[in-house]
Design brief:
Distance between the termini: 51 Å
Strand content: 5-15%
Helix content: 40-55%
Structural class: alpha/beta
Number of strands: 8
Strand order of the largest sheet: 5-6-7-4-8
Number of helices: 14
Radius of gyration: 22 Å
Shape: globular
Largest sheet: 5 strands, parallel
Order of helices and strands: HEHHEEHEHEHHHHHEHEHHEH
Length: 340
């Protein structure tokens, strides 16, 4: 018997209840965390823990198949059980539909982000810090911008999430996550040769992307590599990669980032090469301050030297809250003014 944490078990149960069918991330998040605001990284962690218990990997799934950017599918073989032996099951979560994300009162922020992306298209590198406390809608703004940017032009999109941890975290964790996702995406195939030629130290940190022979060859090339070499290699790889199209690198929750990621962010922001790169990082200023995290100092130095900009999210106005309620809630327009 294997004892599973409650949330991990809940995710597994939802997937097993619909064998062979896609269960979207939205449905899983709504069903397992109905009263909490959590990011997709929490779900990713649960899936990773399940795979570890089941003895599989994302690259060679035997039970849980990833459907890129959409969700997961249970593909394992289940034994036939007599109906009388089955416990009563709740209604299928696939019937539940997550409400569409609403973006109200953030037109100014989206306009600025698109202006900075336009400058990147013209060859001017941009680093943007989208700041605000928990619940203000940073992720909603990012999601809307990413969707619009992807639909409006041909861009590389790499997205990574910083995770709250206790003790020392893995160096460059959100960047490695972002690069790994991009390499595994259908449009990410051209990235592997670029990394192999210009940034082998990074490729060596993502062994799942390589065959055993290729991994061994890369590891021989990076013996004795230093942190400075890793920074330079990735900057050069980004410069080569963005000749064909810009790169939008999203790093969320930087108040939890490892310090090596901050070094890389600073290095890329100050890189003198002609890379068409937009770094969009989100964080909570109060959280960074309470933790004594160096992120605030890094941001202040970059902004002071004109190498980054800060885009703070403000509270919604009363009129914007009323408009949100009108769109989101049944009977919203008819709510008493005092409630709005």
């Amino acid at each position: 018997m294997v004892r599973l944490p409650p949330k991990v078990f809940a995710v597994l149960r939802l997937l097993v209840a619909q064998p062979g069918q896609l269960v979207t991330k939205e449905v899983l998040l709504q069903a397992v965390w109905p009263e909490a605001v959590v990011s997709e990284a929490v779900l990713t962690t649960c899936i990773a823990e399940l795979r570890k218990i089941l003895g599989e990997t994302a690259q060679a799934p035997r039970f849980i198949q990833t459907v890129h950017r959409r969700g997961y599918r249970f593909v394992g073989h289940l034994p036939t059980v007599a109906p009388s032996a089955l416990p009563p099951s709740p209604p299928s979560p696939s019937r539940a539909t997550a409400p569409p994300p609403l973006l109200v009162g953030r037109e100014r922020e989206l306009t600025h982000l698109h202006q900075w992306l336009e400058r990147v298209w013209q060859g001017a590198r941009q680093t943007v810090f989208l700041t605000g406390e928990a619940g203000l809608g940073k992720t909603t703004v990012v999601n809307a911008f990413v969707e619009e940017a992807a639909g409006a032009g041909d861009v590389w999109l790499a997205r990574g999430q910083c995770i709250e941890h206790y003790g020392a975290g893995e160096a460059y964790l959100p960047v490695l996550e972002a690069l790994g996702r991009l390499c595994r995406a259908p449009e990410g195939a051209p990235l592997l040769p670029v990394l192999e030629q210009h940034a082998p130290t990074w490729l060596a940190q993502m062994p799942a992307l390589l065959s055993a022979t290729a991994l061994e060859a890369v590891q021989r090339r990076v013996v004795g590599a230093t942190q400075k070499r890793m920074l330079r290699e990735l900057a050069e790889a980004v410069e080569v990669l963005t000749v064909s199209r810009p790169l939008l690198l999203v790093l969320e929750d930087l108040h939890w980032s490892d310090y090596a990621t901050l070094d890389l962010l600073t290095y890329l922001a100050r890189w003198l090469g002609p890379s068409r790169l937009l770094i969009l990082g989100t964080y909570r200023p109060v959280e960074a301050l309470l933790r004594g995290h160096p992120l605030q100092t890094v941001k202040r130095e970059l902004v002071l030297h004109g190498q980054a900009v800060e885009l703070p999210l403000e509270l919604l106005t009363a009129a914007e809250v009323a408009r949100y309620l009108g769109l989101r809630c049944a009977g919203g327009p008819d709510l008493p003014p005092a409630i709005r």
